[in-house]
Amino acid sequence: MTINHIEVIRSCDKGLLRAVFSATIDNSLTIVGIKVIQGRSKRFVLLPCRKNKLGLYEEILRFSNDEDRLLFEETILKAYDKYMEIKDAFEE
Asked: Are 21 and 8 in contact, with CB atoms under 8 Å apart?
């Protein structure tokens, strides 16, 4: 799996939501609505989801194996860190 393009759609300074991204995989699939969330002890990545009839949230898509999921999460979090460095430098 190759992640070809990552784009920040928006970022937030307050609350648990830190940023929303889109990512293109293997130049063929673009995922929109990837969220970076600040948890109590660490940040984590959520794939796009929707609310079902019971009011619970379900991922619209998921990775077939843990290796690709970890690679994807690490890449998104590195992109978020880089974005924040640039944003902080620009604001100074």
From this structure: yes
Q: Which domains does the chain have, with CATH numbers?
A: 3-91 (3.30.1120.40)
The Cβ of residue 6 has, within 10 Å, a number of other Cβ atoms equal to 17
Whether 62 has a pLDDT exceeding 80, the answer reads yes
Cβ atoms of 71 and 1 within 8 Å: the answer is: yes
Instruction: Specify whether the CB–CB gap between 24 and 4 falls below 8 A.
Output: yes
pTM of the full structure: 0.86
In 35-73, which positions are buried (b, 16+ CB within 10 angstroms) versus exposed (e)?
bbeeeeeebebbbeeeeeeeeeeeeeeeeeeeeeeeebb
- The tens digit of pLDDT for each residue in 14-27 reads 889 999 999 999 99
